Amino acid sequence: MAMAMMTMRRAAALGARHILAASSSRVAPLRHMSADAGAAMEKIRAAGLLRTQGLIAGRWVDAYDGKTIEVQNPATGDVLANVACMGSRETSDAITSANCAFYSWSKLTANERSKALRKWYDLIIAHKEELALLMTLEQGKPMKEALGEVNYGASFIEYFAEEAKRIYGDIIPPTLSDRRLLVLKQPVGVVGAITPWNFPLAMITRKVGPALACGCTVVVKPSEFTPLTALAAADLALQAGIPAGALNVVMGNAPEIGDALLQSTQVRKITFTGSTAVGKKLMAGSANTVKKVSLELGGNAPCIVFDDADIDVAVKGSLAAKFRNSGQTCVCANRILVQEGIYEKFASAFIKAVQSLHVGNGLEESTSQGPLINEAAVQKVEKFINDATSKGANIMLGGKRHSLGMTFYEPTVVGNVSNDMLLFREEVFGPVAPLIPFKTEKEAIYLANDTNAGLAAYIFTKSIPRSWRVSESLEYGLVGVNEGIISTEVAPFGGVKQSGLGREGSKYGVDEYLELKYICMGNMG
C-alpha cells in the first residue's frame, strides 16, 4: 500500500481534479510579478491566514521529526513557505483526536452544528480575497477563477449548514399491531478525506461540509502542492467554533498518511478526489477494514456540437468547459466532437476565441490562463501532443511551451484527432482541445461513450427532443446541455463506470456520511 500511496502522490501532480476562465495566447505582463506576490503574502499574513503547521486536536503542530516541505509558486518557482512534512505518527494522533471529538460533536443538536457551519461560511466569505490570493500563489489559477472557487467552496458550507437540520429518519408501518418500526440516520464516524491540488478549497469543503453537518469528524490530507489554502480554511473553522478534533489537517508524506488512514479501524470512511488509478488503490486498501468509500475520479469528457447548435453558444460553452484552470479539471471537455456540417465554421470561431485568451501570472488582472501545476504536468501534455501528431493529427493553434517559460503552455487546438490517440483515450489535464468530426447522432453517442470514464459530458443543440435523447444515452454522471459550467452545490456531482462511486453536493451528498439503523420496538400494543 505504501507503493500505492506513492503512486497517489505522483498521480496527484497529474490527475487530480474544477470555476471559470479560459486561456490565452496574448501574454499578460510579468514585470511586477514578484512585487505583487510579496504584497499578496503580506496581506495573507496580516489576516493571520498563513499557517505552515498541521492541525491536530485543535493545536497547530510541527512534524514530530521537524521535517518540512517547500510550497512553490508554479508561476515563478519561488518558495512561498515551508510546511510541516507529517507522516504516520501525526496521522495516528489526528485520527485519535477525531475519534474522541466524534462522541461530543455527534451528540450536539443539528441546529448547533448548523450554526457553527454557518459561522465558518461567513468567515470564508469575509476573507475571500486573502483565500483567493493564497490559492493563486500556490496553485497558479487566475484571481478571477480563485475568487470563483472561494465562493463555490463556501457555498457547500452554507448549503450543508442548512441541510444539517433536514436529516430525517423514517417510520415504517408495522406488520404486527404491537410493534413500531423506526429508521434512524446516524453519522458514520471518523472520515479520512484526501483532496487534490486543482481545487484546494472547494474539494475540501465539498467533503468536510456534509461530514460535519451529519455529525462526523474529519482528518483531511490536502495535496502537498497546495496545503496553504487548506490550512487557512481550517484556521477559519476553528475561529467559527468548530471544536478541537472535529477537523484535523495533516500533510506531507503521502504514503505514510494514506496507510495510516486505511489501516485504522477508527476511520470508518474514505472520501477521495483524484485519479482513477489511485482511487482503485484506495478501494483495495479500504477492504481490509471494510470502510465506506466515495470516490470522485478521472474523466474524459466529450463535448458534442451538433450541426443545429448555436455556434456562438457552443464556442462560449466549449471554451469554458475546456480551458478553465488551464484545462486541469476532471470535468474539462477532453474531446470536442463536431458534426461535419459545421466543423469548419465551428473550428474557425473556436480558434479565434482561443487566440484571444491571455496567458500569464494569475495575479495579473488580464490573465485568464495560468501555469500548469508542475513540470511533470507539462511533460504529460507534450507526450499527448507528440503521440497525436505522430498518428496524423495536425496542430491548428499552439502546441508548444509558452515563451513565458516555467510551466506555462500555449492554449492549443488539435485537428484530425482519432480514437487511437492518447488525446482521445485519456485525460490530458492541460490546455489542449482536440477537435473530432462526426457524421451522425448515433456515431457521436458511440464515440462519446467509447471510454472507461463517465464523469461529465456536454452537448450543444437547439433541438429539445435531441437534448433529451442524447442526454439519456450518454453514460455519464453529469450532462451539460448548451452550458459549459455545470457544477453547483445544490446538484449531485459524481460519475459512473470508472469515474467513481457516490455523489458529492446536494441532498444526495449527505447520505454518503450516514448509516441507517433499523429499530424494532415490541410489546407496544
Automatic annotation (TrEMBL):
A GO molecular-function annotation: NAD binding
A Pfam family of this chain: Aldedh
Catalytic activity: succinate semialdehyde + NAD(+) + H2O = succinate + NADH + 2 H(+)
Gene Ontology biological process terms, A to Z: adaxial/abaxial axis specification; cotyledon development; gamma-aminobutyrate shunt; gamma-aminobutyric acid catabolic process; maintenance of shoot apical meristem identity; reactive oxygen species metabolic process; response to cold; response to heat
GO CC annotations on file: mitochondrial matrix
Keywords on record: Mitochondrion, NAD, Oxidoreductase
Start and end residues of each Aldehyde dehydrogenase domain: 60-519
Active site: E296
Protein's pathway: Amino-acid degradation; 4-aminobutanoate degradation
Location(s), subcellular: Mitochondrion
PROSITE patterns: ALDEHYDE_DEHYDR_CYS (PS00070), ALDEHYDE_DEHYDR_GLU (PS00687)
EC number of the protein: 1.2.1.24
NAD in keyword set: yes
Entries under InterPro entries matching the protein: Ald_DH/histidinol_DH, Ald_DH_C, Ald_DH_CS_CYS, Ald_DH_CS_GLU, Ald_DH_N, Aldehyde_DH_dom, Aldehyde_DH_Superfamily, Succ_semiAld_DH
Assigned protein family: Belongs to the aldehyde dehydrogenase family.
NCBIfam families: SSADH (TIGR01780)
Quaternary assembly: Homotetramer.
Listed name of the protein: Succinate-semialdehyde dehydrogenase
The species this protein was found in: Panicum hallii var. hallii
